[in-house]
Design a protein that fits this description.
The chain has 129 residues and is an all-alpha fold. It is built from 8 helices and no strands. It has one domain (2-127).
Length: 129
Protein backbone atom coordinates (compact mmCIF):
# COMPACT_ATOMS: atom_id res chain seq x y z
CA UNK A 1 0.00 0.00 0.00
CA UNK A 2 2.86 2.38 0.76
CA UNK A 3 4.24 1.88 -2.76
CA UNK A 4 0.84 2.54 -4.31
CA UNK A 5 0.37 5.69 -2.23
CA UNK A 6 3.84 6.85 -3.27
CA UNK A 7 2.91 6.30 -6.93
CA UNK A 8 -0.20 8.43 -6.37
CA UNK A 9 1.90 11.08 -4.56
CA UNK A 10 -0.38 10.70 -1.54
CA UNK A 11 0.75 12.70 1.48
CA UNK A 12 -2.14 11.59 3.69
CA UNK A 13 -0.98 9.53 6.70
CA UNK A 14 -1.36 5.76 6.28
CA UNK A 15 -3.63 5.60 9.36
CA UNK A 16 -6.06 7.99 7.70
CA UNK A 17 -6.00 6.09 4.41
CA UNK A 18 -6.76 2.85 6.24
CA UNK A 19 -9.89 4.44 7.76
CA UNK A 20 -11.41 5.09 4.31
CA UNK A 21 -14.08 2.60 3.27
CA UNK A 22 -12.53 0.12 0.80
CA UNK A 23 -14.75 1.12 -2.15
CA UNK A 24 -13.67 4.77 -1.76
CA UNK A 25 -9.89 4.37 -1.30
CA UNK A 26 -8.96 4.63 -4.97
CA UNK A 27 -11.55 7.39 -5.45
CA UNK A 28 -10.13 9.45 -2.56
CA UNK A 29 -6.52 8.84 -3.61
CA UNK A 30 -7.33 9.94 -7.13
CA UNK A 31 -9.11 13.12 -6.02
CA UNK A 32 -6.16 13.89 -3.73
CA UNK A 33 -3.81 13.43 -6.68
CA UNK A 34 -5.91 15.67 -8.93
CA UNK A 35 -6.11 18.42 -6.33
CA UNK A 36 -2.33 18.38 -5.86
CA UNK A 37 -1.29 18.01 -9.49
CA UNK A 38 -3.86 19.67 -11.71
CA UNK A 39 -3.77 23.42 -12.29
CA UNK A 40 -6.00 25.45 -9.97
CA UNK A 41 -8.09 26.65 -12.87
CA UNK A 42 -8.99 23.08 -13.92
CA UNK A 43 -10.87 21.93 -10.83
CA UNK A 44 -12.58 24.19 -8.30
CA UNK A 45 -13.75 23.34 -4.79
CA UNK A 46 -17.41 23.18 -5.83
CA UNK A 47 -16.49 20.79 -8.67
CA UNK A 48 -14.67 18.62 -6.17
CA UNK A 49 -17.84 18.70 -4.07
CA UNK A 50 -19.80 17.42 -7.08
CA UNK A 51 -17.43 14.43 -7.37
CA UNK A 52 -17.83 13.65 -3.68
CA UNK A 53 -21.62 14.11 -3.72
CA UNK A 54 -22.08 11.70 -6.60
CA UNK A 55 -19.79 9.09 -5.03
CA UNK A 56 -21.58 9.25 -1.68
CA UNK A 57 -25.08 9.15 -3.19
CA UNK A 58 -24.35 6.57 -5.90
CA UNK A 59 -25.23 3.61 -3.69
CA UNK A 60 -28.73 5.02 -3.14
CA UNK A 61 -29.50 4.69 -6.86
CA UNK A 62 -30.38 1.45 -8.57
CA UNK A 63 -29.68 0.94 -12.28
CA UNK A 64 -33.19 1.89 -13.50
CA UNK A 65 -33.03 5.11 -11.44
CA UNK A 66 -29.69 6.02 -13.02
CA UNK A 67 -31.01 5.19 -16.50
CA UNK A 68 -34.06 7.41 -15.89
CA UNK A 69 -32.07 10.25 -14.32
CA UNK A 70 -32.68 13.42 -16.30
CA UNK A 71 -29.90 15.94 -16.77
CA UNK A 72 -31.24 19.36 -17.71
CA UNK A 73 -28.32 20.29 -19.98
CA UNK A 74 -24.89 19.08 -21.04
CA UNK A 75 -22.11 21.16 -19.52
CA UNK A 76 -18.88 20.94 -21.46
CA UNK A 77 -16.65 21.38 -18.41
CA UNK A 78 -18.44 18.58 -16.53
CA UNK A 79 -17.75 16.22 -19.44
CA UNK A 80 -14.12 17.39 -19.50
CA UNK A 81 -13.67 16.78 -15.75
CA UNK A 82 -15.32 13.37 -15.96
CA UNK A 83 -12.91 12.47 -18.78
CA UNK A 84 -9.89 13.61 -16.75
CA UNK A 85 -11.20 11.65 -13.78
CA UNK A 86 -11.69 8.44 -15.79
CA UNK A 87 -8.20 8.77 -17.30
CA UNK A 88 -6.96 9.04 -13.72
CA UNK A 89 -8.92 5.92 -12.76
CA UNK A 90 -7.16 3.99 -15.52
CA UNK A 91 -3.77 5.19 -14.29
CA UNK A 92 -4.63 4.47 -10.64
CA UNK A 93 -5.80 0.95 -11.56
CA UNK A 94 -2.50 0.35 -13.35
CA UNK A 95 -0.66 1.53 -10.22
CA UNK A 96 -2.72 -0.86 -8.07
CA UNK A 97 -1.77 -3.75 -10.34
CA UNK A 98 1.89 -2.71 -10.49
CA UNK A 99 2.02 -2.56 -6.67
CA UNK A 100 0.80 -6.15 -6.20
CA UNK A 101 -2.83 -5.18 -5.63
CA UNK A 102 -2.81 -3.59 -2.16
CA UNK A 103 -6.59 -3.20 -2.55
CA UNK A 104 -9.16 -5.68 -3.79
CA UNK A 105 -9.75 -5.06 -7.48
CA UNK A 106 -13.50 -5.30 -6.88
CA UNK A 107 -13.24 -2.23 -4.60
CA UNK A 108 -11.33 -0.33 -7.30
CA UNK A 109 -13.88 -0.71 -10.08
CA UNK A 110 -15.20 2.71 -11.12
CA UNK A 111 -18.87 1.75 -10.97
CA UNK A 112 -18.49 1.53 -7.18
CA UNK A 113 -17.77 5.26 -6.91
CA UNK A 114 -18.49 6.99 -10.22
CA UNK A 115 -21.38 7.43 -12.63
CA UNK A 116 -21.04 10.04 -15.35
CA UNK A 117 -24.71 11.02 -15.55
CA UNK A 118 -25.04 11.29 -11.77
CA UNK A 119 -21.83 13.34 -11.66
CA UNK A 120 -23.23 15.62 -14.35
CA UNK A 121 -26.42 16.21 -12.37
CA UNK A 122 -24.43 16.89 -9.16
CA UNK A 123 -22.12 19.19 -11.12
CA UNK A 124 -25.09 21.27 -12.29
CA UNK A 125 -26.45 21.45 -8.73
CA UNK A 126 -23.04 22.42 -7.33
CA UNK A 127 -22.62 25.06 -10.04
CA UNK A 128 -25.88 26.66 -8.88
CA UNK A 129 -24.54 26.54 -5.29
Amino acid sequence: MRTYLACMECTVPMETVQEIQPQFKLFCNLLHYLIKNVDDDVICEWELNAFIAQAVTLSSFDIPALVNLKVEKVVRNAVHLATIFMKGVTTALAAVCACYKPMKMDDCTPWKYFDGKLFHSKYILAEKK
